[in-house]
Amino acid sequence: MGDRVRFSARWAALLAAGGLAALAAPALLGERPFELRMLTIVCLYATLGHGWNVLGGYAGQSSLGHGVFFGAGAYVTACLVGLLGASPWLALPAGALAAALIGVAIGWPCFRLRGHYFVIATLVVAESAFLLVNAWEPLGGAMGLNLPIRPDGFANLQFGRDKTGYYYVALAMLALVTALVWALQRSSFGFVLRAIRDDEAAVRSLGFSPARYKQVAMALSAAIVGACGGFFAQYVLFVDPPSVLALSLSVTIALIPILGGIGTVSGPIIGAAVLVPLSEYSRVWFSGTGRNVDLLVYGALIMLISVYRPQGLAGVLGDALRGARAPAGARGAGAQTGAGGAG
Fold first, then answer.
1. Which pLDDT tens digit goes with each residue over 62-96?
2. CB-side exposure of 135: number of CA atoms within 13 Å?
């Protein structure tokens, strides 16, 4: 019990240090817009990873179609702000709600499928949505939609010259969603989701409805991703199918928690903190000649994690904290035991 408390204290100290560093990051960076933008994208993608993790990590329903929900949130926000002149603070929840409703509509037929059939179905839905919106003129078609430029400030969620405001909004979204997922993980709802992931038939035999729980998980997952899409629309002030509905976006959303640690609170944050800088700096270092180099590195990392650390980078960090916590004698005995078992 004491070891567990000390281990939790290490995680809490690490989280507190990370939170303070995140709050102080803009002041520490100074006039470095590239790094500030990268940190904003890290927060955004970590939140997206949390959204995917609710469905894929806890409920065990791996999806490659979450780009649909991101695009739904982005387009609803763009239409409400750009065409109707609504406040972005009303458009963001509307985008999240629209994504949740779309998620429920998609989940109703897709949850009848299992395993790789479910994955393929979500993939088909994502590609179909891209083709549909790309040809739909009321939504701008392939040309996309522009959001109006308004006076800078949090009221309009626009920051023309100094992008620090975007960073703090993205950080607040990440903190809020992280707290939500932390509470979900420890709730009875979260326990049922993990039970569905491990043995759906057993959950059904206990009188629970797996379909109902998976639908709620899909709605929550889609709402989180849709809110991120709305924020992205405000951030770039432009949406088009390649930027918010591309299949590569759905794959990246899934890769983040897979690399960081599926079914963990820290996994999406760690995954985004690794993948986003890797992607951004590879583009800078290799320029045009390094196109898709980041995807090759992603693949190599995923293979290494799958073979050596299936629990993801969060598991690696957890093992390191446990190793730092354990007495030297215990570590030596553990190493001898492991060596004897291997032999």
1. 999 999 999 999 999 999 998 899 999 999 999 99
2. 5
